[in-house]
Amino acid sequence: MIQAGYTPPRDLKRVSTLALAVGALFFALLVFGLLVDRTQFFHAYLVGFIFWIGITIGSMALLMLQHLTGGAWGLIIRRVLEAATRTLPLMLMLFIPVLVGLNQIYTWTNRAEMDQVPVLREKAAHYLNPAFFMMRAALYFAIWSLMALLLNWLSLQHDRTADRRFSKRLQMISGPGLGLLILTITFASIDWVMSLDPAWSSTIYGLIFVASWSLSALAFGILVMSWLAKREPMNAVVRTSHFHDWGNLMMALVMLWMYFAFSQYLIIWSANLPEETVWFVARKHGGWGVIALGIVILQFVFPFLTLLSRAAKKSPQRLGMLALLILLTRVVDVIWLIEPSFNREHFHLSWMDLVAPFAIGGLWIATFAWQLQKRSLVPINDPQLEQALAAHAGH
Amino acid sequence: MVKTKASRLYGVMAQFDNPSTLVAAARETYAAGYRKINGYSPFPIEELSEAIGFTRTGLPLIVLAGGIIGGLGGFFMQYWMEVINYPLNVGGKPFNSWPAFIPITFECIVLCAAFAAVFGMLALNKLPQPYHPVFNAPNFALATRDSFFLVIESKDPKFDHDEARRFLKSLEAREVVDVEL
């Protein structure tokens, strides 16, 4: 099945095993946490789940973006993104603990409490109730699975047959698919994260997740590419011009995230309404304010200034390091989004919040590395391949 | 007669039929040690600027400076107005309401960086330039249609009229002409 020339490096098998071992170790720690503090376990678990499904779904967004726009950058990174979308079955399984801990995580599951406030009573009756929550989650996963299946299957068929109809069809589903993806990410982020504060709402919330999940996915993709660029066979394929393009896209996403996140802050700060500001008040006081500032610096200011330099974008090592920094900051960002909802009065951070992303991440990366081995690392029959591999690749 | 003509020479120009011969010729000319050279083409050729040894410009720095000046200017313009010149209590917010200043600061960064890019580009290109000697060459009008040109300027330290002509002729040029000042 794998065509000669672009066989994935053998190291991937070792990465897969190592990730599985790390994941298992951290999961054991997490299970210990479950025994010690059941509620805290589910809070931390949600952090890990939201961070990693962000990379899965964000990869789908980037994949469809590159099918729509074309270009050498997308062709070279396509197989990495496709492998990332194939972690979706794992994420579906890992969603089960969220459902199990629904009562521990979401206060809206307590109907008696919700009924005391008229607005919340309506929300709980028509939208925020466990039955409808599960139905919606099933719908998101169904839509995402269908998209991931189509994107992966059509791409594989195109590899096998070199029939241009398949690449045409990929392009055709990507337009509506991207629209549908933005809608499902919006609804999923509202259900899974925003509803932690059932009384609070922000209309730009979903778009912040669209930007930050795409950013996570691209940072992860760049990190993998900088790893692959040092090994056979990709060392002969990847050029600095590709890293330059990914660096530019990462800069765009960093700015897009900051734009959405700041818009939300500015609007809530300007209106200054108590029911809206509570969300930021919980995230600005105690240690959270320093962490918020750190997120802005490490997820916007520093990457933005670094990515202004062409040399930084063209160097696989430096871009890879920056991508790693962004990924780690994304974990902190997810903690900052989720954890203050549980402890509004004072700063509270559990060791489990830091363990959960590694526990789920180990399983995720093991699945990813296993899936990445399954196909040629470059889509061999793509009509743009020759141009992409040329010494002076076009954009 | 011949002497005066040589002293009023801008350079020697070679005409090529396609972009790849132009780029190849430009590379050889640069390799031969000529530095004051320039290429002309109906459309941008990415490799050409590199071939004539034109790799970096100061434009990014000019744009960066424009952006920084715009950002600081935009922010402190608002700071001066809201805090120093005409403090006004708006909804009980502090005079220095920096979050509200950010959108205008951002717009000023974009505006000044864009102006710096356009005018910096014009200045670095020494534009507008009402007169340029290359237009004295008889076929040069074709540079906007289907011909490609390479010029070795007489200012080049290595420039020798006969030698430059002979050299360009050896590069598969369709025609080599003198360009007068």
What does this structure look like?
The complex is a heterodimer of chains A (395) and B (181). Helix content of chain A is 76%, strand content 0%. The mean pLDDT of chain A is 92. Chain A has one domain (11-384). Chain A has helices at 11-36, 38-69, 72-85, 88-94, 96-100, 102-105, 111-114, 118-126, 130-161, 164-192, 205-228, 240-271, 274-282, 288-307, 310-314, 316-338, 351-372, 385-389. Chain A is an all-alpha fold and 395 residues long. Chain B is an alpha+beta fold and 181 residues long. Chain B folds into two domains: 9-55 and 127-180, no CATH class; 59-124, no CATH class. Chain B is 49% helix and 13% strand. Chain B contains six helices and four strands. Chain B has helices at residues 2-7, 19-31, 46-51, 59-85, 98-124, 161-169, and strands spanning 9-16, 37-40, 148-153, 175-180. Chain B has a four-stranded antiparallel sheet with strand order 2-3-1-4. In chain B, helix 4 (59-85) packs antiparallel against helix 5 (98-124). The radius of gyration of chain B is 25 Å and the shape is rod-shaped. Chain B starts with a helix and ends with a strand. Residues 1-6 of chain B have low confidence and may be disordered.
In quaternary terms, these chains amount to heterodimer
Name the helix and strand elements of chain B from N-terminus to C-terminus, one letter apiece.
HEHEHHHEHE
Helical residues, percent of chain A: over 70%
In round numbers, the mean pLDDT of chain B is 91
Q: Name the structural class of chain B.
A: alpha+beta
Strand order of the largest sheet of chain B: 2-3-1-4
Largest β-sheet summary of chain B? 4 strands, antiparallel
Describe the structure concisely for a colleague:
The complex is a heterodimer of chains A (395) and B (181). By secondary structure, chain A is mainly α.
Secondary structure layout plus pairing:
The complex is a heterodimer of chains A (395) and B (181).
Chain A: H1 11-36, H2 38-69, H3 72-85, H4 88-94, H5 96-100, H6 102-105, H7 111-114, H8 118-126, H9 130-161, H10 164-192, H11 205-228, H12 240-271, H13 274-282, H14 288-307, H15 310-314, H16 316-338, H17 351-372, H18 385-389
Helix pairs in contact in A: 1-2, 1-17, 2-3, 2-9, 2-10, 2-11, 2-16, 2-17, 3-11, 3-17, 9-10, 10-11, 11-12, 11-16, 12-14, 14-16
Chain B: H1 2-7, E1 9-16, H2 19-31, E2 37-40, H3 46-51, H4 59-85, H5 98-124, E3 148-153, H6 161-169, E4 175-180
Antiparallel strand pairs in B: 1-3, 1-4, 2-3
